[in-house]
Amino acid sequence: MLIARPTSDEYAPSYATYIDAVSQPDVLASLKAQKQSTAQLLAGLNDAQAAFRYAPGKWTLREVIGHLADSERIFSYRLLRIARGDATPLAGFEENDYVPAGQFERRTLASVAAEFAAVRDASLALLQGLDPEAFARRGTASGKPVTARALAFIIAGHEKHHLGVIRERYLK
Q1: Would you say 140 and 146 are in contact if contact means Cβ atoms under 8 Å apart?
Q2: What is the pTM (predicted TM-score) of this model?
Q3: Domain-embedded: residue 9
Q4: Residue 86: inside a domain
Q5: How far is CA 78 from the centre of its chain?
Q6: Distance (Å, rounded) from C-alpha 105 to C-alpha 90?
Q7: Helices marked H in the chain
Q8: Residue 49 within any structural domain of the chain
Q9: Within the chain, what is the greatest distance between any pair of CA atoms?
Q10: How many domains does the chain fold into?
Q11: Which terminus of the chain has a smaller tally of CB atoms within 10 A, N or C?
């Protein structure tokens, strides 16, 4: 099943960067490929590399992966609610509060990476079980309109964004 690319009226302008970052027309294939490539990248790193901050006050690489897991859970939850026709407005979240509360630095990189992979598996299972009508449903998240389809692309684009930052700022 090919999930159609969302149109600009299906998401807030602030998410355009993430959606535009998904170059493949098949977002499911993109999400599956990301799972593999991210796991490979992280498997080649040690815990000292995972504790690196590229500047004072920035997250460690391990915290970035924890952030990806938390964010994907939230985006997937929003996608689930909207896809099921729940019209209840969904609250936003403050990523800068979640990361310290996640205490990712107390864990190994392998543990955080495994959690992220499990979250991705759950997201893929959800997406693969939806029909085309569910992807077109609209809801409100963080005070802005969004479709289930747009959330699938946001998940993929958000990871792509952060993996680019990891490659450029953490692994150079």
Answers
A1: yes
A2: 0.97
A3: no
A4: yes
A5: 12
A6: 29
A7: 16-20, 27-43, 47-50, 61-83, 95-102, 109-128, 132-136, 148-165
A8: yes
A9: 46
A10: 1
A11: C
Is residue 4 situated within a structural domain? no
Question: Which amino acid is located at 72 in the chain?
Answer: E
> How big is the chain, counted in residues?
172
CA distance 42 to 52: 13
Looking up residue 34, the CATH number of its domain turns out to be 1.20.120.450
Cα–Cα distance between 10 and 171 in angstroms, integer?
Answer: 35
pLDDT tens, residue order, the chain (172 aa)? 899 999 999 999 999 999 999 999 999 999 999 999 999 999 999 999 999 999 999 999 999 999 999 999 999 999 999 999 999 999 999 999 999 999 999 999 999 999 999 999 999 999 999 999 999 999 999 999 999 999 999 999 999 999 999 999 999 8
Residue with tokens 């499990």: 118
Domain extent at residue 20: 15-170
Burial class (CB in 10 A: 0-12, 13-18, 19+), 118: exposed
